[in-house]
Each structure stands twice: as structure tokens, then as C-alpha cells.
Specification:
alpha/beta, TIM Barrel, eight-stranded parallel beta sheet, three-stranded antiparallel beta sheet, 16 helices, Metal_Hydrolase, Amidohydro-rel, carboxy-lyase activity, ACMSD
């Protein structure tokens, strides 16, 4: 039987995860899940609500909208958070049983609420790193409880290099092999900035792959383009349209400024940021590089290979079934990964059937179903 690894699932954080795992000196900075007077549950920080908590239903995005509309209308919630939250959403051993139920062998597991708070806490770097450390400590437990079938994704920022070095060493010791980072600038510095070379070396030395994933992180567009911020929307529509822009911009910067040339063992993952953009992006990457080299009389950096070749060797991209990863692979090359986004509402409860309907069969596409995610996991 062909092995099947899901490159994008999520584990809900428990109400007390951050308080349980944060350094005692930072306990006042711990995120939490708190119920308001009407019974709605909120992700909160320093006593203030950050985001309304949802119990997602795979394939039923409208249920999240209905939950928000009830809140806006002043109605009580249609469910109590703790009463309807399935064990498979947050308990590692229950998630492993769910994998068996749907015919999957392994899964990469990202945070759930960890996608909602990084930018909103950015005014306090100490709070950001403290809460990231709390999640990362739980990742070590997930790694152990998953018995090789769950691959937890750490949460890191590049803003504090010394903290990052310590976290990478601890994560590597626990066997964690993936870490979510932002695809935007780092306190005004591009990812390719020379000051970051030691950071990329540290990722490589510790055998941990940085991954871009949809999240509340520093933006590449001005805040004026996101009016949904003021209305309580979970995701601004503009952001959903341009999901692919932050990773495309970041990878352009890394490739053209020679980061992969200098760090040949560095790998990157791109997850839940769509994949249909990749063929056109690679065409433009090579074309724009050729054009500007002639126009300016010199390249951005001296590269030994075509820009697109660095992408094809160093980057792996999750591709939803409806994006037709078989066709994308034929156009671009074998860089795409199977994903379900379980248990999020925009994901699916029937991942294998979804891909098979698109002509993706496990024995014929080992890259899609396990080889490419194995590259990121250093298997």
C-alpha cells in the first residue's frame, strides 16, 4: 500500500495550553480561551478579546459565518464550545485514530488559534516569543504522543535571533522538524537580508524546515486594504484573494538574492496558500530576472542556476484537490503535496476521495502523497 501523508492539518489548543506551558515569569502574557457573558468563547490576551472562537465543521464554511451573525445579532450561541469540540480536534491520540478512519498514514499538524494572534501581539515581542514557546513545548508532547504519525509544526519569529537559536535547539532535540514563520519583512528587513544568513544556517544545522502558512502575520500590503479588520471578520476578502502573494514575494526575494545559493540544504514549505499560481510565477520569475539583468546591466546576485530551478529544488507547495495538482505537476514539476486542512471548515472530511476524483492516485504520484512532504521532514 502507498503511504499517504497529509501536509496540512490543525490541532486546536486547549483553553489552558499557553498558561500551562509558558514560562512562569510570563504568565500574565499567556493567551487564553475565555467565555463572555453570552456564552461565546474568545481567544483573549491581557483580558481583551482577539478573535471569536469557532468549532469548525469540515466542508461547511457557512457554519462559521452563521456563528458570527448570531453574535452580531445579539443572540446566544447555537452551541457551547466545550460541549461540541470533538476529541480528534485537539487530542493527539484521537487524531491518530481519525487518520485510521479516513485512510491516512501521517499528518503535519499546525496550530489552530496560533494562526490568529502573531501580528496582534507584535507590539510586545516578549509576549510573542513567550506564547510561541508555550506552543512549541506542547509540540514536543505531540511529537511523542503521535508515535511518528503526527508531525507538529512549531511557531517561530525571526525578530529575536538569540531566542530563535534556543528554540531551534530545543525543537530539534524533541524531534520537531517543521516551523511556521512569517512570509513578510522582519522589523523592516527583507528575509534575504545578510543579517539573516546565520538564521538560515541555524535552520539547516538543526534539521528544521521553515514553512509559510496562512496566518495573522506581518502584511506585505498596507493596512488600508483590509477594512474587514474593523468589522470582526475572520478573514478579509482581499487577503483571501491574494493569499499567494506573501509566499511568492518572499521566495522571489530569497531566490534572486542568493539565499538558496548560499544555503544549498535549506528547504521551504508553502502550505494553505494555494498552488495554482506556481506555473505562472515560475515563468515570471525567470522572465523578470532575465529582463532586469539586461536592463540594469547586472543581476540582483550571481546565481549558478536559473531562478526557477531553485524553487523546484528547494520549495514544496501544498495543493488542494480542486486546484488539480495532477495538471499542475505536468505543467511545473513534482513539487506539490496532498492536504486536507482538517478540521477547518474550508477543508474536507473525505480527503482521499477528493483527490481521486481529480485523477490523483497514490501509486502513480508518490511526490504528491508522501515524497515531497518527506523532503521537508528530512526523511
Amino acid at each position: 500500500m502507498a503511504r499517504i501523508v497529509d501536509s496540512d492539518q490543525h490541532l486546536y489548543e486547549s483553553r489552558s495550553l499557553w498558561a500551562d506551558h509558558i514560562d512562569p515569569s510570563a504568565r500574565d502574557e499567556a493567551l487564553s480561551l475565555v467565555d463572555d457573558e453570552r456564552g461565546y468563547t474568545w481567544l483573549s490576551w491581557r483580558g481583551a478579546p482577539l478573535a471569536l472562537a469557532d468549532v469548525h465543521l469540515p466542508g461547511d464554511t457557512a457554519s462559521c459565518g452563521a456563528h458570527r451573525n448570531r453574535y452580531r445579532a445579539g443572540k446566544p450561541p447555537s452551541y457551547r464550545y466545550d460541549e461540541v469540540l470533538p476529541a480528534s480536534y485537539w487530542r493527539p491520540e484521537a487524531r491518530v485514530r481519525w487518520l485510521d478512519d479516513v485512510g491516512l498514514d501521517e499528518a503535519v499538524v499546525f496550530p489552530n488559534y496560533g494562526l490568529l494572534w502573531e501580528r496582534r501581539l507584535s507590539s510586545s515581542l516578549a509576549a510573542v516569543t513567550a506564547n510561541m514557546t508555550a506552543w512549541n513545548r506542547w509540540c514536543a508532547a505531540v511529537q511523542a504522543e503521535g508515535r511518528g504519525r503526527l508531525h507538529p509544526v512549531a511557531h517561530l519569529t525571526l525578530r529575536d535571533p538569540q531566542w530563535l537559536k534556543t528554540e531551534l535547539a530545543r525543537l530539534a532535540g524533541a524531534g520537531v522538524r517543521l516551523a511556521m514563520i512569517g512570509a513578510g519583512s522582519v522589523d523592516g528587513r527583507a528575509l534575504s537580508h545578510p543579517d539573516h544568513d546565520r538564521i538560515w544556517s541555524a535552520f539547516v544545522d538543526h534539521g528544521i524546515t521553515p514553512v509559510f502558512h496562512v496566518a495573522d502575520q506581518v502584511r506585505v500590503f498596507d493596512d488600508c486594504w483590509y477594512p474587514g479588520d474593523q468589522s470582526g471578520d475572520l478573514v478579509p476578502a482581499t487577503e483571501a484573494v491574494f493569499l499567494w502573494v506573501p509566499p511568492a514575494l518572499a521566495l522571489t526575494d530569497l531566490i534572486l538574492h542568493g539565499v538558496f545559493e548560499r544555503h544549498p540544504r535549506l528547504r521551504f514549505g508553502v502550505v494553505e496558500l494555494s498552488s495554482a499560481w506556481v506555473p505562472q510565477f515560475l515563468l515570471l520569475l525567470d522572465g523578470a530576472s532575465d529582463f532586469t539583468t539586461r536592463l540594469n546591466g547586472r543581476p540582483v546576485a550571481t546565481l549558478s542556476r536559473r531562478p526557477s530551478e531553485y524553487f523546484l529544488e528547494h520549495v514544496r507547495v501544498s495543493s488542494f484537490s480542486y486546484e488539480d495538482p495532477k495538471q499542475l505537476t505536468d505543467k511545473t514539476g513534482d513539487v506539490f503535496m496532498f492536504c486536507s486542512d482538517y478540521p477547518h471548515s474550508e477543508g474536507t472530511a473525505t480527503p482521499l476521495d477528493d483527490y481521486r476524483r481529480m485523477g490523483c492516485e497514490e501509486p502513480a504520484m508518490p511526490g504528491l502523497f508522501h515524497d515531497n512532504v518527506d523532503t521537508l521532514l528530512h526523511h
